[in-house]
Amino acid sequence: MFYDYEVYDQEIQKTIQFKKIDFDRDGELIHKWMMEEHVHPFWNLNIPFEKFQDHLKKALSDSHQTLYAGYLDGVAMSYWEAYWVKGDLVEETYTPAPFDQGVHLLIGEREYLGKGLSLPLLRAMVSYQFQEKKTNKVIAEPDIRNDKMIHVFEKCGFKPVKPITLPDKTGMLMFCERSEFEKRWLNDGLHEQIK
């Protein structure tokens, strides 16, 4: 299978892959993940499949974001939204640079929870986002109640900025500057890009 980005992570000794979401291939799987107890309190998309299909079609047609399935050694287990801050609601909450990007994520498959995978996965996605040379900042706005995820973002190099009010949640606005990320991870030997 062709992946949009593929990297081998020495820390977990697994290959992390991202592939753009295909409605027909991935729709039912993502809907299944949205129904999971560990997901729906933060995503609020535990809705009937017909409604979710409409939501996913709309999200896929939104040109300011790209949706990905995340894989570990070829097994789909996570969902990602990489987006341009310009054109997103969050651009009202701070003064963004033109190429700032943001990220949303969830681990869908239960057997991958609690295994220390969130950080390597997030690190791989942020590395992928920083391949856009004009991007100097990746932001996140995890639900302010989601202490685990805020901690993972901090370990990756994100710094909490301030709580922000969004239509579906109060988020913690967090910034990951390219310089901080590269200082932390660029020469760590933990991951090598496959292509």
Description:
- Helix 1 crosses helix 3 and helix 4 crosses helix 5.
- This protein starts with a strand and ends with a strand.
- The relative contact order is 0.17.
- It has a nine-stranded mixed β-sheet with strand order 7-8-6-5-4-3-2-1-9, sandwiched between helices.
- The protein has 195 residues and is α+β, with helices and mostly antiparallel strands.
- The chain has one domain: Aminopeptidase.
- A hairpin with a 4-residue loop joins strand 1 and strand 2.
- The longest helix has 12 residues.
Keywords, please?
alpha+beta; Aminopeptidase; 30% helix
CATH topology: Aminopeptidase
Distance between the termini: 13 Å
SS elements, strand count: 9
Describe the largest sheet.
9 strands, mixed
Q: Which structural category do the helix and sheet elements fall into?
A: alpha+beta
Total separate domains: 1
Instruction: Give the strand order, joined by hyphens, for the main sheet.
Output: 7-8-6-5-4-3-2-1-9
CATH-level-2 architecture = 3-Layer(aba) Sandwich
Mean pLDDT over the full residue set? 94
Return residue spans where pLDDT drops below 50 for at least 5 consecutive residues.
none
Helix/strand order: EEHHHEEEHEHEEHE
The helix content, as a percent range, equals 25-40%
Task: Provide a count of the helices.
Answer: 6
Strand percentage lies at: 25-35%
Name the CATH superfamily classification: Gcn5-related N-acetyltransferase (GNAT)
Instruction: Please write the CATH class name.
Output: Alpha Beta
**What's the alpha carbon Rg, rounded to whole Å?**
16 Å
Which shape, going by the Cα principal axes? globular
